Amino acid sequence: MGCERVVDGGIRKPRFLCLHGFRTSGQILKKQVGRWPESVLKKLDLVFVDAPFPAQGKSDVEGFFNPPYYEWFHFSKELTEYKDFDKCFEYIEDCMIKHAPIDGFLGFSQGLSYQLHCLLYKQRV
User: Is residue 7 helix, strand or coil?
Assistant: First the structure.
């Protein structure tokens, strides 16, 4: 049975909130993950969301994927200052409530970076 959960007499697939990479989108990540083997995809319930902030610059995927593009948080050119983490945390909490129950996360690039930041923050609190 693995990670599947029994709900109302039936089996529910594990649901993952999927956080895309820097200056991409949930739709782009969905297309990328869609190339995974069907044997894997049929066992998962994947929820793809867009980051809360429109991209503030050029996306590296322009020409490969159409806009709009988003980012999870903002940072300085020197990568020494980060902002909007709290707003992003609230946004992800709202997504988790909206799409509940969430069993885990799938993250790529900035989406994964943000997840790791949240885990480290929770360990300190």
Answer: strand
User: Which residue in this structure is represented by tokens 């990479």?
Assistant: 21
The beta-carbon contacts of 95-100 under 8 Å, at least 24 apart in sequence, are: 95/17, 95/47, 95/49, 96/17, 99/15, 99/17, 99/47, 99/49
Alpha-carbon separation of residue 111 from 13, 37, 56, 72, 105 (angstroms): 22, 22, 16, 7, 10
A 10 A CB-CB count for 25 gives 23
% of the chain surpassing 70 pLDDT:
77
Could you tell me the pTM of the whole model?
0.80
Both tokens of 33, joined, read 């993950």
Q: DSSP readout, 23-85?
A: TB-HHHHHHHHTTS-HHHHTT-EEEEE--SEE-SS--TTTTTSPSP-EES-EE-TTS--EE-H
Sign of the C-alpha dihedral, residues 109, 31, 66, 19?
A: negative
First-to-last CA distance in the chain?
34
